[in-house]
Amino acid sequence: MASLIDNDAHRTEIFDSLPYYDNDLEQNPTLRGKVERELAREPKPPQTLHPRVPPAIELFKDKPGLAAELARVEAHQPLAPLDTIRYQLPAPTSTPGTDEEWQQALNNAQSQLEHQRIRHTNLALLQTYGPNAWRIHNYLLEATAKQAETALEELKQRTTDVNRERKNSQTRIGNQLTSLENKWTELISSILQIEMANVALDAEVDRLNKKEAELASM
C-alpha cells in the first residue's frame, strides 16, 4: 500500500504496508513476478553489521600458542607426537668422553631433575587446590551460560510480543480498511444507481416533452 502526500514545496512519497493483512500477491500471481523483478533491480543491502552488534570475539588474541592449537583443532589436524628426546639422558657419544661432553650430560641431568621436581610440586598443588578451582570455574561458566540463556529467552519473548502486537494492530486496522472499502463500494454503487436513474428520468422527460409538443402541434 503506497500513498503520496503533496506539500506546497515538494512531494514526499511514503510507502507503508500491512504484511499481516495485505494479500495482493496471493490474489494476483502476476503481481508477485513484478515485485520480484523490482526487488532484483534494487541495490544489495550492505554486508556490514549494525553498529550495535558487538564485534566478533577473537579467542586467545594474546596467547599465540593456544590460538595455534585452536586452529589445529578447527582444521581437524592430528596432535603432534610427544617429543621424548628432551626427557632422555644421553651419555657422551665418544669413548672416552671429553670433559665438555660429560659437563653437558651433567647439565642435562640437572635440568631434568629440576623439571621433575617442579612437575611434582605442580601436581601436588593441583591435587590440593585443583578440584575447588575447577568447581568454581565450572560454576562461573554455568552462571554465564544461564545469564546468556535468560537474555536470549527475554529477547525471544520481546520479539514474539512485538510481532503479536503488530499482527493484532494490523488485523484490527485491516478490518477497518475492509469495512471502509465495502462502504465505499456501496456508496459508489448507490451513486451509479442514482446516475442511471437520472439518465432514465431525463430520457422519460425528453419523451414526455416530445409527446407534449406533438399533441400541441395537433
Automatic annotation (TrEMBL):
Coiled-coil annotated residue ranges, if any: 138-172
Keyword Disulfide bond: no
GO biological process: mRNA processing; RNA splicing
Keywords for the protein's UniProt record, in alphabetical order: Coiled coil, mRNA processing, mRNA splicing, Nucleus, Spliceosome
Cellular component terms (Gene Ontology): catalytic step 2 spliceosome; precatalytic spliceosome; Prp19 complex
Location in the cell: Nucleus
Pfam families in the record: BCAS2
InterPro entries listed in its UniProt record: SPF27
The keyword Coiled coil appears for this protein: yes
Family: Belongs to the SPF27 family.
Protein's name in the database: Pre-mRNA-splicing factor SPF27
Organism, scientific name: Suillus luteus UH-Slu-Lm8-n1
